[in-house]
Amino acid sequence: MxxxxxxxxxDSDAPASPCSTATSNRARGQWTDAGKENDDGPHLRIFPxxxxxxxxxxxxxxxxxxxRTLLLSNLAEGTSHADITSAVRGGQLLEVFMRPRAKYASxxxxxxxxxxxxxxYVRRHGLYISQKRVRDWExxxxxxxxxxxxKFGASRNLVIRRCDPQLNEDEIRQDLEHIHKLVVIRxxxxxxxxxxxxxxVFCASFARTCMMSRRxxxxxxxxYDVDECAQTLDRxxxxxxxxxxxxxxxxxxxxxxxxxxxxxxxxxxDE
Length: 271
Known about the structure:
Layout: E1 43-45, E2 66-73, H1 81-87, E3 93-99, E4 104-109, H2 112-125, E5 127-129, E6 132-134, E7 139-142, E8 157-161, H3 169-176, E9 184-190, E10 193-198, H4 201-212, E11 221-224, H5 245-249
Antiparallel strand pairs: 1-2, 2-4, 2-7, 3-4, 5-6, 8-10, 8-11, 9-10
C-alpha cells in the first residue's frame, strides 16, 4: 500500500504509530468503546495503563513512555488529514493517523507537554473539526521512540528548494506512492520551492531519503519544513457559525505572516 489522498485508510486496528515500528500501544492499555459512534459529536479518549496516567511527568516530554497521543472518535463524515492539521495548534506533530470508515483519528505530538497543554486548552475553549465540535478529550500513552529524531531537525513536512518549475503535485504523489502508509496532505509551490505536508515524521524522513536519490531532484535541496501545527495556542482557529474550519484557519497558516520567523520552530532542544 502506498501514498494516498488525504482520506487514506490503512489496514490496522491500532490508531497510532502506523509508520513506525514502535511497541504496540495496546500493550499499555485496553481499548474501550471510545471509537464507537455517538450522536453527541466527536470524542477523544485516553487509554492509560493506570488511573493516574493523565498526570504528565515533567521530564517525559521526549521520553519513550510519554502521554503524547490524542484519539478523536465519531468525526464528521469526510473529515480529512487537512481538516485535522488545520484545527490543531500548540506543538509540532509526530504523526496523524486516520481511519475514515471508523470515523476516528489519532494525533501524536512530539512533546508530551504540548499534548497536555492542547488537551487543557480545548477543554476550556472547545475544538471544532469540519464544523463539528469535539466534546470529550483524553490523552493516551505512546511508546513511539521516533520523537527523538526531532532533536536532529526532523519534521512531518518537507520543502524541496529550487525544484523543477515543471514539477506538480500529482507528480510528487506518484514519486512517493511506494512509501507504505505515507499520506501526502498537500503540496504547495511557493517562490520556486515545493512545500510537502505529510502525516508522519517517520514517513517524511523516508520520503526525503527517497527523493534525494532521484535524478529529477539532483539540483534541489530537500529539507525538513516548519510544522504549522507548532504555532502557539493563541493561533488556534476560531469557530464561526456558518464559516468552515478550513476557511477560518487560513488566517493562521505560515503564509499569513503570523510568525516573525517561520523556521524558528525547527530549533528544538531537550529541555
